[in-house]
Amino acid sequence: MSEKNRDGKRNARDRLAVEREKQKAADKRRRALIVGASVVCVLGLAAVIGVVAANAGKDKKSDTSGPVVSPSGATGKDSLAIPVGKDGAKSTLTVWEDFRCPACQAFEATYRPTIHELVDSGQLKVEYHLVTLIDGNMGGSGSRRAANAAACAQDAGKFSAYHDVLYENQPKETDDAFADNGKLIELAGKVDGLDTPAFRACVNDGTHDTWVEKSNAAFQSSGFTGTPTVLLGGKNIYADQSMTPAKLKQMVEAANKG
Q1: How far apart are CA 239 and CA 226, in angstroms?
Q2: How big is the CA angle at 19 (ends 15 and 22), to the nearest 5 degrees?
Q3: Do 168 and 112 fall within a single domain?
Q4: Residue 238 falls inside a structural domain
Q5: Residue 62 domain-assigned?
Q6: For every one of its 258 residues, what pLDDT tens digit does the chain have, with 9 covering 90 and above?
């Protein structure tokens, strides 16, 4: 083989080696860019999640300023609870609910007969606290409007019946049908004696809106994580996966004997 051919092959190998090094360097830079972009995406996603988490449960229309008009007979701290049952009942069930909340509707459907039985027999008093969690999470104003209407029903002495009607006619979580005062007034027709000029004015004027917002603010500052939150004698019982209506009845009866 001539010297010229050997030199040509060496030059070819050298050029190939140089190209390989260049390719390795390019691959390294590309990997670095991919990793960097991934980190940026993760950080960006984390920031978005952080914003969503920070705003979860906050009603964008929350405004607790101005006069608070509590519904008739409201009790508890700042008169934020609507009581159902006899004052002399030994046991008290505290329920934080949102009329747009599907889990609240499921709780009501399952436990309502037992709760009514215990209330009617004088064994249990229920204190309802109304919140606007779904308005804050999903947008809209149906939670607030329905809660105001329920407070108006309390003024008329019809809270319990109207409360049940609202849950029996609850729209889908993504359907803000309760934001329509006309719908809330229409449902009042299902409760004898509730659809009156006074009730309609209370609903349309948002008489208890600020009271509802104050109740929601109390929920937000309570440390509770969702609705429904159900307390018996101050103890959170609904978080117990083994809880059933029969067990609730046993707990109330046992507490009343103590």
Answers
A1: 10
A2: 140
A3: yes
A4: yes
A5: no
A6: 544 444 444 555 555 555 566 555 545 554 443 334 333 333 333 333 333 333 333 344 444 466 899 999 999 999 999 999 999 999 999 999 999 999 999 999 999 999 999 999 999 999 999 999 999 999 999 999 999 999 999 999 999 999 999 999 999 999 999 999 999 999 999 999 999 999 999 999 999 999 999 999 999 999 998 999 999 999 999 988 899 999 999 999 999 997
CA distance 184 to 201: 12
Strands, E assignment, the chain: 82-84, 91-97, 124-130, 229-232, 235-236
Contact 135, 61 (CB under 8 A): yes
Indicate the pTM of the whole model. Answer: 0.76
How many domains would you assign to the chain? 2
* Pair 131, 30 in one domain: no
